[in-house]
Amino acid sequence: MNLSALSLRDLEYVVAVAELRHFGRAAERCAVSQPSLSAQIRKLEEALGLSLFERTSRKVLLTPRGEAIVAQARVVLEEARRLLALADGSGGALTGRLRLAAIHTLGPYLFPHILPPLREAWPDLTLILSEGRTDSLLEELRDGRLDAVLLALPVETDGLVAEPLFFEPFLLAHPAGHRLCSSPTLSLNDLDPSELLLLEEGHCLRDQALAACGLSARGGGVHATGLETLRHMVAAGAGCTLMPLLATQGEAGRTASVGGLVDYRPFDASSNGARPPGRVIGLVWRASDPRDRGLRDLAALLHRVMPAGTGPVLS
């Protein structure tokens, strides 16, 4: 195959279909008609002498060889973006499109807080927001499907940059009228492990809650699929849980308190002055991203506008 037959636009089409698993939605993302996108991908497949996708009436799947081609296409596109950043003199500033994701237990509560200042700072930046679990988000980040992720630190940072933003404390969410309501102080030692409700395996918040309470991976007998389900389980009187501060604030926190059936209470600082249980929230991106300077500017902005009730990250 001659290089002249390969275009970056064709690679964008292929990557879009691979990510969305749908030719129509991929065409919308690429601002082209579906017949044109399909024809270009067919042309590329013929030039490469292989099929990139399995096409059925219900879904689109990558072929084994297609997976390798898409992975390399992402590398080529990132290097092309690096070239453009050098050429336009932006010096790594944030321009064009930014695919920003957050873990499920953070995104719905942090995005409303950070979007206004972010949009003010970069009015021409096109934001594509999503959510997921830590492992899948890091995989998508390394593969080039995401540009930056907001999650709880620490994480494995080989090839990545992780910038701490703020400390988010955990509150105790318990049913209204619970025995701990009358306790003058509150520490983790006051919790009954048999009452502890957790998210299902795969959520980093589950691991953080277990670690804070000094329990094994098998601790807690009742699990929830998501944070809002967990909150409603507390409202139903099934037990108590550790709730991230941001999930208790604003409209989401008020609405999901289920008519006053859930109370939130902060933990007291320990006798030696140590912080109450919580997590460090950070922004993570690829070290190879040509927009490194812009992403550092983004991290600095997010640090400046840290939500009320959170605190600085202690070294």
From TrEMBL:
Q: What superkingdom heads the lineage?
A: Bacteria
Pfam families xrefs: HTH_1, LysR_substrate
Native species of this protein?
Azospirillum lipoferum (strain 4B)
Instruction: Please list the GO terms describing molecular function.
Output: DNA binding; DNA-binding transcription factor activity
Q: What is this protein called?
A: Transcriptional regulator of oxidative stress
Any Gene Ontology CC annotation: protein-DNA complex
Asked whether the keyword Transcription is assigned, the reply is yes
Keywords of the record, alphabetical order, are: Activator, DNA-binding, Plasmid, Transcription, Transcription regulation
Ranges of residues in domain HTH lysR-type: 6-63
Q: Which family does it belong to?
A: Belongs to the LysR transcriptional regulatory family.
Gene3D superfamilies given in the database record: Periplasmic binding protein-like II, Winged helix-like DNA-binding domain superfamily/Winged helix DNA-binding domain
